[in-house]
Write a structure and sequence with these properties.
Number of strands of chain A: 16
CATH topology of the largest domain in chain A: Dihydrodipicolinate Reductase, domain 2
Oligomer: homodimer
Number of helices of chain A: 12
Distance between the termini of chain A: 51 Å
């Protein structure tokens, strides 16, 4: 039997404790599949005294996280601290500089510093792996790097945030409104006390930027992601979508064309009932990759949670134990192309538009005139007869397939209109 | 840039020609992801003169397939001939004995000779890969070997045969009967002229036996798979299942318990509407793996076709180019456990039973008495009032959760009854 692979674990939150439990439970099985013993040797976290439900006595405790990278008895540092910068980034850099492989579940850090860390890992000839950073327990990064490796990926899209999907599918099932369901999700632990990163689409955007880099062989460009959240989706929108044969899901969508550039967007979308993503309920994640030979591949599973995330972290560790030190982004970082952000204006889509308007004559005429002047062709229009709270009325419509620039122009024409009580909500049909 | 990886291709049917086209189309991309050039150097098939829609002039032609393994300018032999034995097996053995890595899409050969070939590959220290043998373009073997590597797999199940799924979902959508839809599937190329392997469940059983070996670390035991096909499913069964909130899908299901042994079954099952497999239509495949940490992982995509299958073959080739020569079944063949077939008798399930009976008094009393005597508790019973062609009547029922042995006992009590016009059809509820 070969030499053991020795792990240092930085961060003992839910996922860190889950990883300790995973090695306790499945240790023998991991050893047989990795072909060598794999052992946690040292751990570090902020608070040594906290009860995490796992026995930490077999491992060396380091008060100073950065000391893990300097230990001679460590081959791999696992970073589960979180946060784009701060101790997580310091730990990651120190580990790679010291020639230790790095495994991380930190999507924010990879989305912001993935290129730097990949270059560092490659210059050292060591592994940098982050399967757990995207879609929790679902092996979608391996699916792209290996399973779909022979394909030009034409588009990648999916449900990348379990909190948002839980909220949207619960709103759908109960008819309740966003705020109420969010509060319930917080009480159940499906949403953070500060839900901003999740509900505003930032977390999904981190993951999308990472997937896009691997799928299209492009340098990560997180700042270019066009990000929208779900906070403005109302129960009425969900009911309206349902009547049209659609469900609302927060999707990350990316495609890349040498001429057009790299398109990356996170936005609530209308997904037709027959599509596999429409059936994805609760905190589940699902990613679709469309390859030019494979056709449509779907990967689905738990997008978060201690067990699934620890499973993905441990899969990376097993890869390293087996000797896989392949390029973190499938091709060497230096070979990743710089892709300009695509101009969304001439993309075409069918579009759902929902206006909240004051209940007085002429409002509909004003809206439809703006549509006409911007050459937006209306496929169906629904005015909710009954005023909502505060006397406002919802007007929803679906525009025929057409360039996004025309929708933007129509919205520009309506900007500042006293008839609108809030900015219109725009969602594309998948 | 490292040395090129040189490929010999045995078999130029749909998938073989698809692989040539894939390398023509995506060659540069494959080279960048593999980290080295990957080139087809030699090909062989039965008929040199046949037009396959691809230019074969760049490659050496060998009339004798077995000569491919002896070529000094070949590193990997790709076997796409098909068939459990014969030229495919000879080619595979020759290649491995000559120290060439082997990639194959041949599920029958792996199901029957996978252990021998894995031992041969391992003794030579070379790769044997067969991602394309299971579920076409879906990287489910990589998903198990790598993505879910840290998990004890508790159950694996899925839709493993596209022809059967096309037939069942078309019957469902059109209300037409099996024979008619099969004939249409044959005309469309979704079913073979001789559909036996597909519709009788043998093809799905080959794939299930391979998946089970990898998932449970057990030696392949294809003869132990309990195999049923879809030929006896009627439009009336599909309508009945639909009324109960279920869809009928041919599923391969396997689980393994050290005490109980290895359970492997291919059988049409009733899948509840909310389950992701119920939404899988047409020739699509989908596999669910339940890991003790990952939870439920779903892999879905095209189960057959030249493009998807070639995509899976090429993914294996890229793995080899990257230096992955890991154990074909995730752990070394010698470490795979011998698992006795599980006795299904004390497994419990809810069961759908459909009887075709002569339209005369007392038949229902006879059937329900047999159920009572075997201690099978009936949850719901539907007697179709209107006699089918030939004057027979269908009686369908769902039995409460209970041991399968009781169902078998009830059927034994009814065996030979002149009231039954054919043996009862039994399907489990997932």
């Amino acid at each position: 039997m070969a030499e053991p692979l020795r792990i240092a674990l930085a961060g003992l939150g839910t996922v860190g404790a889950g990883l300790v439990r995973l090695f306790e439970t499945n240790g023998a099985l991991i050893e047989s599949r990795a072909g060598r013993p794999v052992r946690i040797v040292a751990v570090s976290a902020r608070d040594r005294s906290k009860d995490r439900g796992v026995d930490l006595s077999p491992y060396v405790w380091e008060d100073d996280m950065t000391a893990l990278a300097e230990r001679e008895d460590v081959d791999v540092v696992v970073e589960l601290v979180g946060g784009a910068d701060g101790p997580a980034l310091t730990t990651a850099r120190n580990a790679l500089r010291a020639g230790k492989a790095l495994v991380t579940a930190n999507k924010a850090m990879i989305a912001h510093h993935g290129m730097e860390l990949a270059e560092l890992a490659e210059s050292q000839g060591i592994a940098l792996k982050f399967e757990a950073a995207v879609a929790g327990g679902i092996p979608v990064i391996k699916g792209l790097r290996e399973g779909a490796a022979a394909n030009r990926i034409e588009r990648i899209y999916g449900i990348l945030n379990g909190t948002c999907n839980y909220i949207l599918s619960t709103m759908e099932q109960t008819g309740r409104d966003f705020g109420e369901v969010l509060a319930e999700a917080q009480a159940l632990g499906y949403a953070e006390a500060d839900p901003t990163f999740d509900v505003e689409g930032i977390d999904a955007a981190h993951k999308l930027a990472i997937l896009a880099a691997i799928a299209f062989g492009a340098r990560i460009d997180f700042p270019a992601v066009d990000i929208g959240g779900i906070g403005r989706v109302r129960a009425a929108d969900i009911a309206q979508a349902e009547a049209l044969g659609y469900r609302i899901r927060l999707l990350g969508i990316a495609d890349c064309d040498e001429g057009e550039g790299l398109f990356q967007r996170v936005q609530p979308c209308l997904v037709p009932h027959g599509h596999p993503l429409a059936a994805v309920d609760g905190p589940t994640n699902a990613v679709v990759a469309e390859g030019n030979f494979s056709g449509r591949l779907l990967f689905q599973g738990a997008g978060a949670g201690d067990g699934p995330t620890a499973s993905a972290v441990a899969a990376d560790i097993i890869d390293i134990a087996r000797g896989d030190i392949g390029a973190p982004f499938s091709v060497p970082a230096a070979a990743l192309a710089v892709r300009a952000p695509a101009d969304a204006g001439h993309r075409t889509s069918r579009t759902y538009l929902r206006f909240t308007v004051t209940d007085r004559p002429g409002v509909l005429a004003e809206i439809t005139a703006a549509m006409r002047d911007a050459q937006v062709s209306i496929e169906s229009l629904i005015q909710h007869g009954r005023p909502e709270e505060g006397g406002e009325v919802l007007v929803a419509m679906v525009a025929h397939e057409g360039p996004e620039a025309r929708i933007a122009e129509a919205l520009r024409l309506l900007e500042g209109s006293p008839s609108l009580t809030e900015p219109p909500l725009i969602m594309r049909l998948l």
